[in-house]
Amino acid sequence: MRPLFRPRTRPQAAFISFRGGEHFGDSPSVELGNGCHIQVSQIVLPNPQEPSGVTTAYYSYSYALSSNIDEDWILRYDYVPGKAADPEYNYPVAHVHFNGTSAAYDGFYMPGKRPLYKLHCPTERIAIESFIEHLIIELKVPTHGDRDEALAFLAESRREFHEKLRTK
Fold it and tell me: Of 56, 64, 118, 150, which has the maximum CB count within 10 A?
């Protein structure tokens, strides 16, 4: 990953993307060892309560079955805290979308029902470590080194995120 900065003399925000992103807002996908793809986008800003720190202004973590991430995604975690003050935005700022099918949901009548993949299922804000751990455990994404060591590293990093570094 490398940060892409908005073109200003003193950067006020950073967009974090995987290699391949050349411009602010680019979100290339990365192929994993199991042939699937992830797409990670994150915007961080200076933290007004912690002058030497940053705060997350947005993130989106997606997992897809092919390089066509716009069509073949399975799940996507979104965090859009800036929408909390928007009276037109009626969804949880931290949520997950599932791109799947459910005969029970399809058969359930509800006026104005949205497609299943457009539902904003509430969740807590998650650390990137939780997303990566999910990929390793549930979706069998291989690690470059020892799997247990990778999971222990992610658990420790997530613990630090929750105990020391997380901002509201």
Answer: 64
State pLDDT tens for residues 23-55.
555 667 888 989 999 998 888 888 888 777 788
Beta bridge partners of 14: 5, 44
Could you tell me the two tokens for 91?
A: 């969804």
Q: How much is the pTM?
A: 0.80
- Which two tokens mark 115? 């497609």
Q: What is the DSSP string of 18-60?
A: -TT--STT----EE-TTS-EEEEEEEEEEETTEEEEEEEEEEE
Q: Where does the chain have alpha helices with state H? A: 69-72, 103-107, 128-138, 147-160
φ, ψ of residue 95 in degrees (nearest 5): -155, 170
Give the Cα separation of 17 and 23 in Å (integer). Answer: 10
pLDDT in tens, 137-149: 999 999 989 999 9
User: What's the rounded Cα separation, in Å, for the pair 93 and 83?
Assistant: 7
**Residue 63 dihedral angles phi and psi, to the nearest 5°:** -130, 130
